[in-house]
UniProtKB/TrEMBL annotation:
Location of the HhH-GPD domain: 38-185
Cofactor(s) the protein requires to work: [4Fe-4S] cluster
NCBIfam families: nth (TIGR01083)
Domain of life of the source: Bacteria
The protein's name in its UniProt record: Endonuclease III
Positions that bind [4Fe-4S] cluster: C187, C194, C197, C203
GO terms of biological process kind: base-excision repair, AP site formation
The record's free-text note on cofactor binding: Binds 1 [4Fe-4S] cluster.
Organism: Candidatus Lambdaproteobacteria bacterium RIFOXYD2_FULL_56_26
Amino acid sequence: MKPQDRQGLFEALVLALPNPVSELHYANPFELLVAVILSAQATDVSVNKVTPALFRLAPTPQKLVELGEDKVRELIKTIGLFNHKAKNLVLCAAQLLERHQGEVPRDRASLMALAGVGVKTAGVVLNVAFGEPCIPVDTHVFRVSNRLGLVKTQKPEQTEVALLKVVPDWAKPKAHHLLILHGRYTCKARKPLCPACPVSAFCAYFKNNPPA
């Protein structure tokens, strides 16, 4: 894709989605970190159903440690992998207290040293909580960026590096959610809504699969 097409593509996405934000519910970086850990292999909708009660009882790392793994497990039991996630959440909270005075760190290495935090989770926290221009990659971002022709990657872990090379600098802080929301509601996995797509003029898939 040519640089001018990438520019036009993101300008069109911003026109369609002028305020792209996370659909997870949170009030501060700690709540965001908890919600993103819970969202692994789970939908934002399912996470948002359990976090109000969890955050009410454990609004801080100290309160989460005091709540304990058994109670956390009970509160999140409708989420996939809840046993593993309960253990990680309590351990992560303890690590925040021990290493960072209860504050969520804003560097990737420190985040990824916390229990339950991988590359994507760290990237989401850095991007959403702290405004860092990284582009964490989930299934939507991987699918959409390849389908559009922004990148050609075989694995999600290759995709952020590739995107950071081609996404216009001004769009990088928003690119994660622009691509996620576009993939969630328009560029769907099985049946992309090409006739309603605001960026079809720039899309490699649309050019190769025009409507009949």
